Amino acid sequence: MVSVAIIDDYAGAALTLADWAPVARQAKIQVFTHHLSDREIVAALQPFEIVCTLRERSSLSSQTLAQLPNLKMIVVTDARVGTIDQPAATARGILVCEGKAPEDMPAAPTATAEFAWGLILATVRHIPEESQRLQRGDWQRTLGYVVAGRTLGIVGLGRIGTRMAHYARAFDMQVLAWSQNLTEAAAAKAGVKRVEKGFLFQNSDIVTVHYVLSGRSRGLVGSAEITAMKPAAYLINTSRGAVVDETALIAALREKRIAGAGLDVFDQEPLPQDHPLRALGNVTMTPHLGFVTEVGMRRFYTGAALAVGAYLQGSPVNVLNPEALARRGYS
Prior knowledge:
The protein is an alpha/beta fold. It contains 14 helices and twelve strands. The chain folds into two domains: about 140 residues, NAD(P)-binding Rossmann-like Domain (Rossmann fold, 3-Layer(aba) Sandwich), CATH 3.40.50.720; about 180 residues, NAD(P)-binding Rossmann-like Domain (Rossmann fold, 3-Layer(aba) Sandwich). The longest helix has 19 residues.
């Protein structure tokens, strides 16, 4: 019987959010609800013919793939995922297929922007800190930060950044924006002012980062940008951890050169127990929740179930490395 692994299902929701019955009639499904470390992943996945991943939660490198002789198919939830070594998979005849949900299935395009705005308010009003204090039997100690009349700097005025600008105007904030290819016309259409990157970091009270991780965006927010920020300013990152120089940010937080940060993403996920960010009192942290909604997860797992079902029927769909089809003998 074909064996299917669903990995990194932290919420244990994969089998309840999608119809896996057609797959279960032909395959044995095992769900891993904890993150498999580099030491665990090979031993855990060796028996499986199909592995279903979720976003970038796990990496399948060429070294890992070489140790998974039974693997024939990997399902990803995003065609742009960079944590699967597709050339190595192709060389081994392993199909990499995108799990696409039906087009008429409800989506959640505002999920990350909504979450980012919540993280801003939680950070500047010290909501998690005060909630924990109250649960311990203590009472309020901090002073909140009103956003009305302040300046929000948006790094990356794409789909999410544009929505953040919309939210900011509803909160009576001034909005500055910068990205590498942003034009004044595009900024004006979004109702914001385009400025140079240095000006944005020097003049924003809150900086929020919304950039796709790529070779040119890695470390985009570095020591120079963080040093330029006001001492009372906050940095919010819900994009990808590596867009911000984590070492420079930790130093600024530790030395209180900025007021604080709100982080949903990190260089290493899950965040190690001994990570220095865990010891800082001026950072609000969440475990990469920006895209995690019931609607979004339903789409991801429905698409994965459909992709696995198509493979079991002998007709793989949404194949991202078609060269692997020939290696596997598909006509």
